[in-house]
Amino acid sequence: MPRIDLNCDLGEGAGHDTELMSLITSANIACGGHAGDAAMMRATVLLALQHGVAIGAHPGYEDREHFGRRELALHATQVRELVETQTRALQTIARACGGRVVHVKPHGALYNLAARDAAVARAVAEGVRACGAELILCGLAGSALTAAGEACGLRVAHEVFADRTYQTDGSLTPRSQAGALIANEAAAVAQARRFVAEGRVRALGGAEVAVRADTLCLHGDGAHAVTFARKIRAEFLRAGIDLKAFAA
After folding, report:
1. For the segment 84-139, what is each residue's pLDDT rounded down to a tens digit?
2. Beta strands 200-202 and 208-210: pairing type?
3. Which residue, of 36, 110, 214, 221, has the fewest CB within 10 Å?
4. Residue 5, C-beta contacts closer than 8 angstroms, at least 6 positions apart
5. With 0-12 CB in 10 A as exposed, 13-18 as middle and 19+ as buried, what is 147?
6. Which among 24, 30, 28, 29 is positioned nearest to 5, based on CA atoms?
7. What pLDDT, on the 0 to 100 scale, is given for residue 224?
8. Taking phi first (over 0 means left), then psi (-120 to 50 degrees means alpha), and beta for anything else, what does residue 108 get?
9. Three-state DSSP state, 58
């Protein structure tokens, strides 16, 4: 039976966490960098435990003004420390709540930079490994980040996106370019199902690209996030696709 994990970035103050938590299998919880604080982390961890959802750390640049979506000029050591510090903060809270952090997914600009920059990717992977060799590193499928995770001896989860278009090299189309986002929900749902059923995606320009899909990102900060998550989940269940956290 085909299988996929549904992950979502939560604890960011978007207001949809309760509804989304019942629809996903893994939660990436903001760790106080780009968003969130100790109280929000605790509330989100407890919500994840209530729904049996895998808990993940979602470290990002400490740049709340730009929500962690602006690249910052940090040295590799600073990137490693950022990832380690924020992940440990969530680990402490999760343990106090009777849970544990099982994966780490960088946020925003840090995620995108690590996907293409080997040095940054290595720093992220080292920061994750410092928090526990058992942790899973989640990154863009086939990217420098997943390669760095494997090189560090970590288990990795290759991530795909239903609402983003792809380039022929398997990278995401930059948001600054036309056609980067898929606004049509039916098209996004169809792309998501194809990731799982065929392991392929049609890139901009029409080329067919092979993509490994361990986990599918459902953005939690959009106005239609809950509706979209319900449609994706319903389609997968209708197609006989097993929904299970990649940490399982």
Report:
1. 999 999 999 999 999 999 999 999 999 999 999 999 999 999 999 999 999 999 99
2. antiparallel
3. 221
4. 25, 26, 54, 157, 214, 215, 216, 243, 244, 245, 246
5. middle
6. 24
7. 77
8. left
9. strand
Establish if 248 belongs to a structural domain.
Answer: no
Between 87 and 175, the more confident residue is 87
Sequence-ordered list of residues with C-beta below 8 angstroms from that of 176, at least 6 positions apart, any chain:
none
**136, part of any domain:** yes
CATH of the domain at 230: 3.20.20.370
Over 80: is that where the pLDDT of 155 sits?
yes
Q: Which residues of 43-58 are buried (b: 16+ CB within 10 A; e: fewer)?
A: bbbebbeeeebbbbbb
What is the DSSP code string of 148-164?
Answer: HHHHTT-EEEEEEESSB
Distance CA 170, CA 225 (A): 25
Tokens linked to 227: 């509706």
- The residue whose two tokens read 């709340």 is 64
Establish if 78 belongs to a structural domain: yes
Q: Break the chain down into helix, strand, coil percent, rounded to 5.
A: 40, 20, 40
Residue pair 137/157 in contact by the 8 Å Cβ criterion: yes
